[in-house]
Design a protein that fits this description.
By secondary structure, the chain is α/β, with parallel strands linked by helices. The chain has one domain: Metallo-beta-lactamase, Chain A (4-Layer Sandwich). The chain is about 20% helix and about 30% strand. A 7-stranded mixed beta sheet has the order 6-5-4-3-2-1-14, covered by helices on one side. Bound molecules: nickel (II) ion and manganese (II) ion. The site of nickel (II) ion has 5 residues, from loops.
């Protein structure tokens, strides 16, 4: 599995020959000014929730790529109404077999509304599994006991967790989340984009290291093999 980081909580994972793009917020992010949104051609766009810092480039990328938008019912419906050709609605606890593997949509502890005020359903995360392994993207969330169940059920190659604090888990809770998930590799996202979520990344690395967990913080535009 190959992960490319696009800044904030935007990243793609290539697995089984398909490109999955998560939470594209790229063009409004000055830190990601070198990422060319016009070049992105994912097969799927998976959305954790409807906040602007997760959906800013969805319409542009969905239209130029024909990607299928996968999200909770209300978000999939929102994009279908906007004329996006291919959408796949889900909800918590439900799984579906796609051509790249199984997607299970799970709950997150956060909020969710579109920038235009449209109700975005409830915020979620995704567990993706296939023959190459399994990974979890938490979306924006607080620490939840639920993560323990998923840690017992799946052998995660890696998990993608928010670490920026204030709007989501901070480092301390993310370390506990990684323990609950029994994950040895964490890709940290949702930090250092705005003043509210600025963190000391070296202290974060040390905190994870002390727990025997690798915290990976790819630079924006970097691709890592996981
Ligand atoms: Ni959010
Ligand atoms: Mn967010």
């Amino acid at each position: 599995m190959r992960l490319t980081y696009y800044g904030h909580a935007a990243f793609s994972v290539e697995t089984k020959g398909k490109n999955l793009l998560f939470d594209p917020f790229i063009s409004p992010n000055p830190l990601a000014a070198h990422i060319k949104v016009a070049d992105l051609r994912p097969d799927y766009i998976l959305l954790s929730h409807a906040h602007g810092d997760h959906v800013a480039d969805v319409e542009t990328i969905a239209r130029q790529s024909g990607a299928t938008v996968v999200s909770i019912f209300e978000i999939a419906d929102y994009y279908a109404q906007k004329g996006i050709q291919s959408t796949h609605p889900m909800n918590f606890g439900g799984a579906w077999d796609f051509d790249f593997g199984k997607v299970k949509m799970v709950q997150a502890a956060h909020s969710s509304v579109f920038p235009d005020g449209t109700y975005g359903g409830n915020p979620g995360g995704f567990i993706i599994s296939n023959e190459e392994g399994a990974f979890y993207y938490a979306g924006d969330t607080a620490l939840m006991m639920d993560m323990k169940i998923w840690g017992e059920r799946y052998d995660f190659r890696f998990v993608v967790l928010p670490i920026g604090d204030n709007f989501t888990m901070g480092v301390e809770d993310a370390v506990t989340a990684a323990r609950f998930l029994q994950a040895k590799r964490v890709v940290g996202v949702h930090y250092n984009t705005f003043p509210y979520i600025e963190i000391d990344t070296e202290a974060a690395q040390r905190a994870f290291q002390a727990a025997g967990i690798d915290l990976l913080l790819p630079v924006i535009g970097e691709t890592i093999e996981l």
